[in-house]
Design goal:
The complex is a heterodimer. Chain A is an alpha+beta fold. Chain A is built from 18 helices and 17 strands. In chain A, strand 16 (377-385) and strand 17 (389-398) form a beta hairpin. The model of chain A has no long low-confidence stretch (mean pLDDT 97). Chain B has three domains: 5-95, no CATH class; 121-243, 3-Layer(aba) Sandwich (Rossmann fold); 249-373, Rossmann fold (3-Layer(aba) Sandwich). Helices cover 49% and strands 7% of the residues of chain B. Chain B is built from 18 helices and seven strands. In chain B, the strands form two sheets. In chain B, strands 2-1-3-4 form a four-stranded parallel sheet, with helices on both faces. Chain B has a three-stranded parallel sheet with strand order 5-6-7, sandwiched between helices. In chain B, helix 17 (339-349) links the parallel strand 6 and strand 7. Mean pLDDT of chain B is 94; it is low at 370-374. The chains are: A alpha+beta, B alpha/beta. Chain A binds chain B through residues 26, 28-31, 33-35, 39, 43-45, 47-52, 59, 61, 87-89, 105, 107-108, 110, 127, 129, 131-132, 135, 150, 152-153, 332-333, 335-339, 342, and chain B through 9, 12-23, 32-35, 37, 40, 43-44, 46-47, 50-53, 55-56, 58-59, 62, 75-78, 292. Bound molecules: iron/sulfur cluster (SF4) (2 copies). One iron/sulfur cluster (SF4) binds next to helix 2, helix 3, helix 5 and helix 6 of chain B.
Amino acid sequence: MLLLDSKTKKKLYDRLVSIVGEEHVTQQETDRVLNAHDCWPLSEAKIRAGELLPLADMIVFPASSEEVSQILIVANDLEIPVIPVGGGAGTCGGTLAIYGGIQLDLKRMVKIFEIDHESMTVKVEAGVMGIDLEEEVNRHGYTMGHTPTSLRASNVGGFIATRSGGSLSSLYGKIEDLTLGLQVVLPNGSIVECKSVPRHSVGPDLRQLFIGSEGVLGIITEATLRLFLIPEERRFRSFSFPDVHSGLEAIRNIFRIEITPSIVRLYDPEDAAMAFSMHFEFEEGHCMLLLGFDGDVAQNDIDENKAVKICSDYGGTDHGEAPAKRWWDHRYNMYYPSRLTTSGFAIGDTIDIVATYDKLENVYHAMKEAMEAHDVVVMSHFSHMYQNGGSIYMIFFSSQPDAETAWATYRKVWDDGVAACLREGGTMSHQHGVGLTRSTYTEDELGSSFQVLKLIKEVLDPKGIMNPGKLGLGVRK
Amino acid sequence: MIFDDSLATQIRMCAACPKMCRHVCPTFFAWRSDAPTPHGRALLIHQEITGSREIDERGIEILYQCLECSHCLTFCIPEIDIATIVELRRKEIVSEGRRPEGLNDMAKAIEKYHNPYSELHESRNDWLELKKSGGKNLLYFTGCTAAYREKEIASDTVELLESLGHEVSISSEEWCCGSPLIRTGDAEFGLELAQHNIEMLNASEAEEIIVTCPGCYRVLTRDYPDYDLKLNKPVKHISQVLEEQIDNLPVDKFEGSITFHDSCHLGRHCDIYDEPRKVIEKVSGAPLVEMERTRDNAMCCGNGAGLRTLFPEKAKKIGAERVRQAKNTGANFLVTSCPFCKNMLKSQSGEDLTVLDLPEMVLMAKRGRKANID
Ligand code: SF4
Ligand code: SF4
């Protein structure tokens, strides 16, 4: 960690105070400790083990884009790292201040501007929590269509910075599909607007440059997001399949005839046993497919009937609505800490890869084998499925006798899991982002296009102050 | 160690939770930082338990920013009770002599005046006019807020109980119930007050003890027994008494709709949700309009567990948010069943929302509303 000398620190502190006021800057160690971490499983496991995490030198809580701009000008001037923090709900350590500096926390920027009913959009500041936004638009008959498990803790800036996806992404899309307009503050302090339009043909889509930029290119301060009418009904259906292959074939063929369920989740035998065997009867060693359909009753009748026929054709056994509905009703529960998942040096994580259908099964088998080689429990589900492919949640769980072995095992599972994914042609993340977990794999993942990212970084952030060490950029020795 | 293995395990789990209840924590709302949050408080204590970091002055402040409202518990699947954990640690802080200054002042006031408002003990409830009727004798334990800050609640309660045929008595020997001390970790002094009050209450010839303050209700029915102090007669909250006699309550039409705020002590801590609602609906002859966050999901008014004493601006910010939630229902009346909540909510309500405590609302119906609006 680079330490700021006390003179620079004092200068920085005074200048930040002059921008946001004393109440909104803190150098207190306790604040820095309590605000240090996001929800990266490795940070969580280290916290439980009593370890201390890297700390920022100070935290600043701006209230407007203008304040963000002024802060960045100061940081750029003094060449001090800036780590943007949203809800602090990311799973990749993206907000850890590994080289110290300023954590710029957006939680005070919570304005929800008036809904544009005509265009079906809403403009919001980056610090608005997902749950608060969803509840607000619900009051007007809309849904954001964006429902990640972290909805209660994550915020709009974080969604966009990590290219987040919710459990209904098959139908509504991911945040990159839902974001029409964007305001970003660049490291030099300029406030950049990307207009809210449905489509355009004016050069490359610059919004997409910042969506998923994880704070390495600038700070997302405002966004205009799409809205959907709350569907008349959400209908559930569940099928078990003898193996992953038949379940995947059913999914692929459902999308092939342009049926777009909102929920599509295929649990492999291990995950199905874990998630459903306590509550439902189905053959041991079988997979479970959950489907959800959002829409009006008549349309859902048509879609559901066609999907049911496809599932039966591929050897599926009908389990009615119960397993899928149960999952939906309890979808947040698995995210809470439990005795089992937190005892000793227990640690688990999810490698949320994505691939096209031609590669998906190979990626699954290759990763499973590579990860299981480290003596960890691996269970998986295919979710966030689309016409051309989809994501796999490769979940692993390890329990080791000491911290050193636990953290080393964790790293090895990641290394070998991602290597297997890349070897088979998959992409290492569908929605969780890169952060620290995947930072060192970024160059391999992006291959020849990594240089584009690097060049853009050099131009926009020549002093390398923005979230150094993340996205494979600015990693210091 | 004040935390046994089971609590230490819970604290450890919570310290690294993916922040699943933070969105309802009023102090997160007020400060917008991860420090004054359920998991933040757990992390402080967890680091102390593991020996990795001590709790410094700022840590103490964060523990004292907790409202002990238990809203986080409603959202916690592993049922980790942060309010209780915080209160246990506060006890140690008090015995270490590290309690925040503002609360030392409050304790001194209670020592001297037997109430936290530094008002003369002699004028606590001597102003209440009581009638002899020969009805069932109820001892009204006024509580400090109704005695000194919300006098109308106290006088309305007496009038109401008398109108229902009871004979109300009060005691000049009533002291603060101890809630403000116990909730902020001064269990020792809390016990002294409890012993004093128990003696007075047990010596009374009344058949029942009635309280209007949910803080008093919780302390008398939960904390006194925890201290092994037994009351020889039942304690009832005014909402329970009124509900028991629901058929004798006055009925009047209220102009506009009514919403209800659950006090944390009455609702989440003592599980009394239905009684005040039944009373309001009976008296107004109309269904309540519920706020979105209601019953065990109700937001705290911001007044609890020392926050108002130590951080009045943040307490008001929370109170104003609760008022906003009430106004969102379109209601004209916000009724609560707690003098302390009423005091905060009224201070933030503005002109377009009338805030009433339950006895006030019932009495308003009895008098015919207009008589009461000056
Ligand atoms: S109280 Fe429960 S839900 Fe809240 S942070 Fe702690 S463990 Fe998580
Ligand atoms: S008891 Fe209330 S104030 Fe305290 S941590 Fe829980 S929700 Fe927050």
